[in-house]
């Protein structure tokens, strides 16, 4: 009996085959620590408020001319006839003892305070993270030397050490204050980065990269660093507000930013003896300083909640 093939028994054409599920699979977002963190931050009102305040403060420090017509560095900016006048509709924050507009000085004072916070945090993060990455990855005698060296700096309190160094340097500005605090502040980031690297260096993805012949440099910056940097970012965000407060304390003591420069701490120092007679001279720069520190701490707390899997 010969085999026969009917039209109904023909193999299904490619057009009649089931559609592949590949397009649907491509639309699925790959979950990761960073993508989950971004999604959580977008829904976190604390982060939104903190980020809005930080953005406003950055713009305020970069372009103070947008928020005030006057300049405290103008020779005619102060008039002793206006000394200690209280706030009014035209001059919201009143005048200080020199007859200078407190609002204008507060706006311009944001620049030095923000510069100190941002620059110190940047220097501390770069130096501490790189040394911590090197110590945690290499280990051995290098790790021991760097760890012992770090302990020397940990024995020096940030504010007390800053007072000692700045008093020896004499007249300071925002950049000298930033460098001094960075010299004293990097060990914290170092220890956090080192501990994070030690906890990640023996994971399976690192072993797999080694087995595939990846170089130490590629493993360090392609695999270790992205997975170990999260706690460093959290501490850096919180510490930024701390450094702004430390700069205000040094300026208040007369060894930080000094005249003719303007700083919130310097304004508070000048206003303190006249608090009972003219409280507005002290209250307004103090309030702005407090809100600034609070904004960065709120931002850091929100980032910590988003990047710490244990808090999910």
Describe how the helices and strands are arranged.
Blueprint: H1 22-27, H2 33-43, H3 45-62, H4 102-138, H5 140-154, H6 158-169, H7 174-200, H8 204-211, H9 216-228, H10 230-252, H11 264-271, H12 280-307
Structural class: mainly alpha
Q: What is the count of β-strands?
A: 0
Biggest sheet character: none
The topology string of helices and strands comes to HHHHHHHHHHHH
State Rg.
28 Å
Shape summary? elongated
Tag the structure with descriptive keywords.
single chain, 312 residues, mainly alpha, 12 helices, elongated, disordered N terminus
Structure description:
The chain contains twelve helices and no strands. It is elongated. The longest helix is centred in the middle third of the chain and has 37 residues, at 102-138. By secondary structure, the protein is an all-alpha fold. Mean pLDDT is 82; it is low at 1-15 and 17-31.
